[in-house]
Amino acid sequence: MSSPFTSEHVAEWASFGPKLKGKPTPEQQLAAQERKEKCTAMKTRLAKELNDPTWTEKKIEKELDRLVEEGVKEEDSARPEYLDGPSGTRDFYPPEMKVQNWLFDNFRESAKAFGFQEYDAPVLEHVKLYERKAGEEIVDQMYNFVDKDGKHVTLRPEMTPTLARMVLNKTNLQTGEVRLTLPLKWFSIPQCWRFETTQRGRKREHYQWNMDIVGVDHVHAELELLAAACFFFRRIGIGSDLVGIKVNSRAVLEAVLSKHGIEKGDKDADGGDIFAKACVIIDKLDKIGGPAVTELLGEIGVSAESSADILKALEAPDVEALTEHIGEESEAILQVKRLFELAKDYGIDDYLKFDASVVRGLAYYTGVVWEAFDRRGELRAIMGGGRYDRLLELYGGDKCTIPCVGFGFGDCVIMELLRDCGKIPEFQGTGVDYVVCAFSPDLYGAAANISSKLRACGWSVDLMPTPKKKVAASFKHADQAGARRMVFVAPDEIEKGLVRVKDLRLKDKDSEAIQVDCPLDEIHTLDELIANAAAN
Ligand code: HAM
Q1: What is the DSSP letter of 466?
Q2: Rounded to the nearest whole angstrom, what is the distance from the C-alpha of residue 386 to the centroid of ligand 1?
Q3: Which of 40, 195, 207, 426 is the most buried (most CB within 10 A)?
Q4: Strand-pair partners of 126
Q5: Structure letter (DSSP) for residue 188
Q6: SS3 223
Q7: How many whole angstroms separate alpha carbon 301 and alpha carbon 266?
Q8: CB 495 within 8 A of CB 482
Q9: What separation in Å is there between the alpha carbon of 121 and the centre of ligand 1?
């Protein structure tokens, strides 16, 4: 089909903007209506010009849409690659940033509700902190390099080693005495970098809400952390019908391995900790299957017979079955039982579920471990954590046996879940208090002066950079911004030492927007003036 339309026609059609997909927000409705009107006018005009009954308005629209799309594709192929961010990274445009801030506010408020204090550290860390020789994926995924001082550094793949470093910097390594009041309850929302295969909920950079308790060696710390995570879930409208938290203890697995002669602290030929290595291997069970796990366990000296027994233990449906499998009610089992009992008092037992197969893929965990999952089973882990009582000792030496427990909660998977459930709140406009517009360039100074006065009173002000004669354009801008009030700086009022302010939310008895003329030196009384006008 040869097209009767020129590049000018296509450019004109494209200038109306793309067709809106889905239900428009009230903010978008105005723009959608405007687009529709422009499109209709152009179609009618072109149908008249073509004067050909085969070119109906519908056909004209279809053809113009096609030509615009073709143009976009051509334009895309000409776009330099560097305009897209590196693979697996995200840009946050203002609408996405609003949602991200909402999520972070909920992380922060939940942490504060449980008495946690915020900390932070640089994204660049020493590679050494992550070299744990246990075959963890995270070590191969580092964004590491040698800096200009010849130092081996990396973008942090996780926050826990940084937290350990920060605590050890306040610890006497000779005596193990921590110069901070324990327990520490700290939280952070760092950006972490992992060179992973990107997929739904997994990126190469992500933000991770970290909550850690340092200095408590019993399950009350685990419970506070689990309760804080559940508090957050409830706060954002994610009930226990949508997510659950699988809980286990590596100490239980330790008991299983001990049955087979592998004791805590045993090293393999490379000097690596066998127990930690075994956990990292077992964590891969879902991905690589039983036979591959058995083979890998064999490489670190675990016999096929022991592997079979370990894999069987991981299938235990509940704590009782696992106790039976181990043959005794060990301290680790008692701790898990206590955790589930107390979870009822906390009112979070609906979220928790015992799962003997959860061991986690990081080498440093020593006790209770957990992972949050979506109950439909479609997404990757939402959050993961556990007890790591020996990490500080690893970095700081024998005296630094300081018990720690915590979790990391990524921002990606939870957003996927919220999106799927339609639970992301809608944020409209900029939420600015005032939009101020000058009628003409000579009044821009007066508009700037009024804006300064309004800001000094504590209001937020969006001063329109380009003066506009048409009040309608300024109102449209104020409407899109979701502003409360509009100030139009016009010559007639300014000559009288006044400024006209319209309240865009309050209406008078005739359903007209409240409008007042405020003396320029009484800007601070605007609230009162408008309230009085609304009352009359
Ligand atoms: P992790 O399981 O490696 O644990 O990560 C914790 C959470 O971070 C995951 O459950 C997921 O929500 C998120 N996450 C991890 N990698 C990615 C990725 N590539 N893209 C998006 N999200 C991701 C840790 O990092 C431990 N340091 C957590 C911890 C804190 N344990 C004790 N304290």
Answers
A1: S
A2: 11
A3: 207
A4: 153
A5: E
A6: helix
A7: 11
A8: no
A9: 17
Q: Which helix (H) or strand (E) is 274 found in, with range?
A: helix 274-282
Q: Residue 168, SS3? A: helix
196 lines ligand 1 (CB under 6 A): yes
295 Cα: distance to centroid of ligand 1 (angstroms): 27
Ligand 1: nearest atom to the Cα of 198: 19
Instruction: Please state the φ and ψ torsions of residue 488, each to the nearest 5 degrees.
Output: -110, 115
Mutation choice for ligand 1 from 165, 208, 404, CB with most ligand atoms inside 8 A = 208
> What single-letter amino acid sits at 21?
K
Per DSSP, what are the bridge partners of residue 171?
A: 178
pLDDT tens digit string along 217-240?
Answer: 999 999 999 999 999 999 999 999
Ligand 1 near 161 CB (within 6 A): no
Q: State in Å: Cα 208 to ligand 1 middle.
A: 7
Distances (CA, A) of 56 to 2, 35, 43, 234: 15, 19, 9, 54
Q: Is residue 520 over pLDDT 90?
A: yes
- pLDDT per residue over 298-322, tens digit each? 998 888 998 999 999 999 999 999 8
Q: 212: Cβ below 6 Å to ligand 1?
A: yes
Q: Cβ neighbours of residue 310 under 8 Å, at least 6 residues apart? A: 253, 256, 257, 260, 278, 282, 297, 302
Give, to the nearest 10 degrees, the angle between helix 57-77 and helix 26-50: 110
What does 97-160 look like in DSSP terms, one character per residue? HHHHHHHHHHHHHHHHHTT-EE----SEEEGGGG---S--HHHHT-EEEE-TTS-EEEE-S-SH
3-state secondary structure of 217: coil
Give the tens place of pLDDT for each residue, 484-506: 999 999 999 999 999 999 999 98
Whole-number Å distance between alpha carbons of 108 and 235: 12
Assess whether the C-beta atom of 210 lies below 6 angstroms from ligand 1.
yes
Q: Ligand 1 within 6 A of 222 CB? A: no
Q: Which of 206, 364, 371, 374 to mutate to test the pocket of ligand 1 (most atoms within 8 A of CB)?
A: 206
Please tell me the distance from the alpha carbon of residue 410 to that of residue 433, in angstroms, as a whole number: 33
> Kind and range of the H or E element at 96?
helix 94-113
CB 258 within 8 A of CB 265: no
**Alpha helices for 6-86 (secondary structure H):** 7-15, 26-50, 57-77
CA 69 to chain CA mean position, Å: 32
Amino acid letter for position 5: F
Closest CA to 253 of 337, 294, 293, 309: 309
Burial letters 196-225, b for 16+ CB under 10 A, else e = beeeebbbbbbbbbbbbbbbbeebebbbbb
Q: What is the DSSP letter of 204?
A: S
